[in-house]
Amino acid sequence: MSDDKNSKKIEEELKRQQKFSMASAIGRSGGGGMLKGASPIPKQDQAVNQIKDFVNQHCLDPSGAIKSILNRRAKNSTALIEKHLDNPKAALAELLQSILDKDTVLYEFVRQVDVKWGEMYQERPLFQQPGDSAHPDDEYTHESVKADLISLLQTVQNSL
Question: Which of 15, 70, 137, 156 is the least crowded, having the fewest Cβ atoms under 10 Å away?
Fold first, then answer.
């Protein structure tokens, strides 16, 4: 019994002599349980990261401009992501469908992809105007981007 009392006294004396630090206080308390079993990454960010991973793995886009713009849109679609927190692929499917549903939205998406391509390659992008035929050197035409998005949408739907 006296050994137990002596060891407690020694431990208390050592604690009194140590300088206080927040890290040691958290360590002594076992972290306060604030992260026990939970990810430190918010669910919203986890969902966005899952979408980005899926897009990067399944989008046929050698230059990467479509992937970049899709990933940016996913990150900025807070309400859509929150609606599908437990199934981020459903959020991606809804995002893709919203782009494909209206030509004006698709044309704006293609314009953003062209701008991104120009930034990436430090070249002047070739912008296709609605109703006009595409320039022969244009990598991102209305039809080619639409086909890429449809293909990605089908891949997403098959994986749901």
Answer: 137
